[in-house]
Every structure is written in structure tokens, then in C-alpha cells.
């Protein structure tokens, strides 16, 4: 009897999860806030015209939100004692929080108490890609905002130092597969990174901490170029383009770099260690299948955006993204 009850409980949980995902749809605000996408895009156009390098960080922020507690806006919450997700080391290099708050304020002015911060962030990420000459997709909406944000839970984020096994495990935890991994990794085609996210590949690959302790999988000329920018293992301030030459443009050049062993992170290089992801990289390194990649990226972003959302009566609609309602 107990086992039957457990089976029923598990079935109901699965049905509830399916229903929650089903509640997200592109026209969720068609009556309650029909102008929301126009409001977000207006702010995005204004921001990226002044600071086009902001596109990468805004895309990354949505990614970091969805991998921890699902896409619930928890990465945006402040904490008085510095124990929120944004205070954890993986999120300390995120930027654009003030801009997200500005967009949310504009949305609140148009439609008070209607659109969640999680949805605002999903729309911002889509427009960051599209305005960088990447694909456009209809964003399923209807997420609610969570009220919990715990720094230790950022262990769920795929680190730039991860190998293929770790990456696939962390992606699988949010229902993303190997194809999603290689497709979403190409988000590195826009934006920059601090040297400390990859400098161990240049100076401390095996723990020796000397100039000859390098990652042998890095292409030598690219490695020397990185060393000229990142002078030491202790460089905590220098920024490097993740996709040199076109880091403000969403394109397939990322795959060209990875195929030549010029991926910036361990995680980029790890895509060459698996037959499926290596084949995907090599196919799109040709640049001949841009439309196919754009469609794949849009599909994977929608899939990621469906990661355990709060919907219906769950959560809340925060008036400000950095604090819960009181």
C-alpha cells in the first residue's frame, strides 16, 4: 500500500511539473501587459547602443538564473549578509543588475504588479542575442519570482574549469542534453571574461605554478596571445574577448575557434573530447550552417527557460528585482 501511495505521489509530481511547463506560453501577457516586449526592447536598444558589450553579461545572467532553482529571478536578489546567489564567486563577475532593475521599473510603469523579474530577464536575454545579430525566438512567458537565493546553491552552475563528464551532469540536472551543451556553449561568441577564469591553463595547469605549466590542448599561438594579455596567475582585473574579433556579434565564429583549439575555457575545449559535440563543433566551424545553428540555439534557450519555473500561484511578482515583496 505504501509503495502504491509513493507511486501515486510521484505521478502527481510529474503531472504537476508538466503542467507548470505547459503554463508558459508566448502570449501569456497578451491581455494583461501587451506592451511588455516593446518596453523591454526599447530599453535594450538604448543600452546596447551605448554599451554593446553588455549583451554577453545579460545573456549569461539568464543562464545563471535558470541553473539554480530554475528560472525564478533568484540570481537578482540582494542579501543583507551577502549570502545570496549574486554573492557567490561564480556570480561576482556578473554585471547588468542595475540595468535589469531599470527595465523592470519601466515594465512596472506600463503594467504594475504584472510581469515577473524572471520573465523580464528571459526577454532581456533574447533581445541581447537578437540585437547582437543572432537569432530571434518567441519567449514562453508566465514565470513567477522566487523568494529564496542561497550562495551555496551556485554549485549547480557549470564552471569554466569543468570537463565533459561534469558538464553533462550539470546540464542533465536541468533537463538539458549534450546537444544543448554544445549549442548553448556558443553563447561565448559574445562578451568577455576575466583572466582568472582561465589563467590556470596558462600558468598552473598541473599545479606547478610556473610559466611552463601550460594546458597542452591549447593551440600554442593562441596561448602566447593570452599570456600577453594575462600577465600572471594573479591577474584579477584584465578582460579578454571570448570570441576575438567579433565578440560583439552573435555568429558561428565560436565554433571555428574551438575547432582550432582556441576555446578560451576548459569547458570550451571539453567539447572536442566527445564524438557528438566534436562533430557539431566541426560542422558549424565551416560557417555553412548558420541558419541551422541559430534555430538550434533558439530551441535550446527555450528549453533552458523551461527549467523548473514557478507558475500559477507559486512565488510572486516582485515589484523590484533585488528584493522580495513585503
UniProtKB/TrEMBL annotation:
Its cofactor is Ca(2+); heme b. Its EC number is 1.11.1.7. The keyword Amino-acid biosynthesis does not apply. It is found in: Secreted. Disulfide bonds join 33-111, 66-71, 117-321, 195-230. Ca(2+) 2 binds at residues 189, 243, 251. The active site is at 64 (proton acceptor). It comes from Triticum aestivum. Ca(2+) 1 binds at residues 65, 68, 70, 72, 74, 85. This is Peroxidase. The record marks 60 as: Transition state stabilizer. PANTHER family: PEROXIDASE 25-RELATED. It is an enzyme of class 1 (oxidoreductase). GO terms for molecular function: heme binding; lactoperoxidase activity; metal ion binding; peroxidase activity. Belongs to the peroxidase family. Ascorbate peroxidase subfamily. Belongs to the peroxidase family. Classical plant (class III) peroxidase subfamily. Removal of H(2)O(2), oxidation of toxic reductants, biosynthesis and degradation of lignin, suberization, auxin catabolism, response to environmental stresses such as wounding, pathogen attack and oxidative stress. These functions might be dependent on each isozyme/isoform in each plant tissue. GO terms for biological process: hydrogen peroxide catabolic process; response to oxidative stress; response to stress.
Amino acid at each position: 500500500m505504501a509503495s502504491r501511495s509513493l507511486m501515486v505521489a510521484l505521478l502527481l509530481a510529474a503531472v504537476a511539473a508538466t503542467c507548470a511547463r505547459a503554463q508558459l506560453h508566448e502570449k501569456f501577457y497578451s491581455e494583461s501587459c501587451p506592451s511588455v516586449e516593446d518596453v523591454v526592447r526599447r530599453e535594450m536598444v538604448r543600452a546596447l547602443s551605448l554599451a554593446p558589450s553588455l549583451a554577453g553579461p545579460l545573456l549569461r545572467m539568464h543562464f545563471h538564473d535558470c541553473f539554480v532553482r530554475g528560472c525564478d529571478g533568484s540570481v537578482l536578489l540582494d542579501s543583507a549578509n551577502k549570502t545570496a546567489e549574486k554573492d557567490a564567486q561564480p556570480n561576482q563577475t556578473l554585471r547588468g543588475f542595475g540595468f535589469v532593475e531599470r527595465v523592470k521599473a519601466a515594465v512596472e510603469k506600463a503594467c504594475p504588479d504584472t510581469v515577473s523579474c524572471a520573465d523580464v530577464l528571459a526577454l532581456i536575454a533574447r533581445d541581447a542575442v537578437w540585437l547582437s545579430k543572432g537569432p530571434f525566438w518567441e519567449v514562453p512567458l508566465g514565470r513567477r519570482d522566487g523568494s529564496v537565493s542561497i550562495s551555496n546553491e551556485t554549485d549547480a552552475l557549470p564552471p569554466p574549469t569543468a570537463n565533459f563528464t561534469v558538464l553533462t551532469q550539470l546540464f542533465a540536472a536541468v533537463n538539458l542534453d549534450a546537444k544543448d551543451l554544445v549549442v548553448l556553449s556558443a553563447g561565448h561568441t559574445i562578451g568577455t571574461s576575466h583572466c582568472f577564469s582561465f589563467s590556470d591553463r596558462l600558468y598552473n595547469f598541473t599545479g606547478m605554478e610556473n610559466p611552463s605549466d601550460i594546458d597542452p590542448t591549447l593551440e600554442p599561438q593562441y596561448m602566447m596571445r593570452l599570456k600577453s594579455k594575462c600577465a600572471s596567475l594573479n591577474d584579477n582585473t584584465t578582460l579578454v574577448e571570448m570570441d576575438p574579433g567579433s565578440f560583439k556579434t552573435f555568429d558561428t565564429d565560436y565554433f571555428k575557434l574551438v575547432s582550432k583549439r582556441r576555446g578560451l575555457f576548459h569547458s570550451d575545449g571539453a567539447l572536442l573530447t566527445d564524438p557528438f559535440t566534436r562533430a557539431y563543433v566541426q560542422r558549424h566551424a565551416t560557417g555553412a550552417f548558420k541558419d541551422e545553428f541559430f534555430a538550434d540555439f533558439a530551441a535550446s534557450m527555450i528549453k533552458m527557460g523551461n527549467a523548473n519555473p514557478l507558475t500559477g500561484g507559486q512565488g510572486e511578482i516582485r515589484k523590484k528585482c533585488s528584493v522580495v515583496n513585503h
